[in-house]
Fold:
Amino acid sequence: MTSSMAAARRNKRVAALQSGFLYLDQRQEQSEPSGRKRKRVNKNKKKNWNKHSDIQDVEEFLEDVRLQERAAGGLVSEKSDDSLFFVDTGDKLQKVPEEEVQHKKKRSRPLKVDVILQHDSLVPPPKNVLAYQQPNAKKLRLKSKTAEKLAAKGMPVKKQKLKRKAVIATNPSKKTLPNNNPNRGFYDLWGQEEKQTGDTWFLEQTKKKLVKRPDRLNEKPSALPAVEVIAPGGSYNPDFFDHQAMLCVQALLLQAHMVEEKRQKAEQKLERQLAVKQEDIATEETVFQEHIEGLIEEDEPEEPTEEEGLKESAPACLALFQEKKTEKQRKKEKAEKEKEKQKRAQREVVGWQQQLFKLRSIKAELRALELKTKQRRAQREAQKEAQKFLPQRLGRIKYQAPDLEVQLSDELSGSLRSMKPEGSILKDRFTSLQKRNLIEPRERAKFKRKYKLKYVEKRAFKAIT
Structure:
């Protein structure tokens, strides 16, 4: 392929150098040097090659050749007269009604998008070598030749090989349509996804089949609605009784409750800090012992005598010098242990038999235990459901509910123009995200200056007089 392209390029260059070469761009033809004296430069050195080499005429010639290939599909000098000119005989065409002409134009005119994407150059695209290649092509060609030779000699050939070759010969590789072809099939972005057929492992490895999303990831972090509807008393023009009820019940009582709760917490904290342990409380005896500390000499404990020491250590010594048990004593001990074991087993059997008479009480205990476990389970489920409507602790800062945005009675107005603005929509949305456990509660970042401000007193020369 490369040799054929090089030969075609060489032929075009030779044809262009001939005297009959036609320039498509007239400016290049006029810009040809005419009898210009060339400057003599020593080109033995590499630094003078690009500096003193004039290749403008070569660039203009190649640009004109490329222009002719794009516009006319080849050199104009090589084209025939029939392809470049036509004879205008002046015959008037048969008149067609304007409605039919407009209808045909509308029907045959392509879309502007497809016209822009169409290939407007007459230069054919380069041949894709990879599209014509086949794996083991040389091997298959040799096999087909040997099969033909065997068939010519009349020798038997396997039917499966011939069948495979026939299938390959009848089904050549299909050429895919270019992307700018207006007749190509379009991909429906909003259409339903096609079901992938094939091996599941292969589809997962090639990323054609997505991994199943766990159900827990589809659960919402909070059951609260995105936008909570305020009570009727919070409207811009509420009813008098609704407004008073909301103002009194939700604002004043809540504020009083919070104040009382804070006071109780402060008192309890103070009591815990000032509390004294019962062990540390002084009694009359402890006070008396403290007063006589160091006044009375305490008697030192007497050391045991030698006889008492021997008496205490006698049992240990006797155990060492005890005589060895006889065979009769060992048998007697073994028999006693066996009797004790049998008595213990008999007592267990009697206990099991006695439990048969306690079946009713045991069943009642089991029912009570089951009822207790059911109640605990229901209580845990209720707590779990209630937790869905409460903000969770996601960070170091605890969520604090904002103040209730309710206007006082003297601040109410009957129109939106004269209404006093209350709160902020942006702040309300931000707190809603925190309340629904979508983001953690945050506080505004405090600006901390890295270096202290330096004050310099500048005095003008006019002030010093």
Summary: The chain has a mean pLDDT of 77. Residues 136-180 form one domain. The two ends are 96 Å apart (CA to CA).
